[in-house]
Design a protein that fits this description.
Layout: H1 2-13, H2 20-48, H3 55-86, H4 96-135, H5 143-148, H6 152-173
Length: 179
């Protein structure tokens, strides 16, 4: 009985299984980022986004697109590199507590992906429909398309991280060779 009590006390003294700080920090980053994107679209969508051949469209929206491509590539590289470098190569030797902590980490990545998809695939998609009902034109380069179509790599990167994290755990648990 004493050994069990000591074991429970030791587990309680360790770090919590669910890292709420990381989850709320990640969620806050997504919400702030998408809030800024929505603000930018609201301010410059009508004033500089109606004609894709106008010089102000190049200034406000095409530069936004170019910066978006660079930042998405850097973000994806950092996230994917982090998952690749931080993976555990000895999954079969982890403790049950560590395995449970990894399940919670997986859940955090799933929450981040869900937040990104919510904004990217629902909120901005509805804005795109409204844009086409109002402006009645369609090109590849409209303010709503630059956000809706070209910003999707943000949540695609989150999905790749989510799947990579899951795959690494599963492949080693069943003794498969994975990338």
């Amino acid at each position: 009985m004493a050994a069990t009590t000591e074991s429970v006390k030791a587990d309680a003294a360790e770090a919590p299984l669910l890292n709420k700080r990381n989850m709320f920090l990640g969620a806050a980053l997504y919400v702030i980022f998408y809030g800024w994107v929505r603000w930018y679209e609201g301010v410059y969508g009508w004033s500089a986004g109606l004609d894709s051949f106008a010089p102000e469209f190049e200034t406000y929206w095409m530069n936004f697109l170019y910066i978006e491509f660079v930042l998405e590539t850097i973000t994806a590289g950092i996230l994917w590199g982090y998952i690749w470098k931080s993976r555990d190569r000895k999954v079969m030797s982890i403790t049950p507590r560590e395995e449970l902590r990894r399940h919670f980490t997986h859940w955090i990545w799933l929450v981040m992906y869900a937040i990104a998809v919510y904004y990217g695939a629902s909120y901005f998609t509805e804005q795109d429909v409204t844009w086409h009902q109002t402006i009645v034109r369609d090109t590849d380069f409209t303010p709503s398309h630059i956000i809706e179509f070209y910003l999707t790599t943000l949540y695609t990167s989150s999905l790749v991280v989510l799947l990579s994290y899951t795959q690494e755990q599963d492949c080693q648990a069943i003794k498969m060779v994975c990338l």
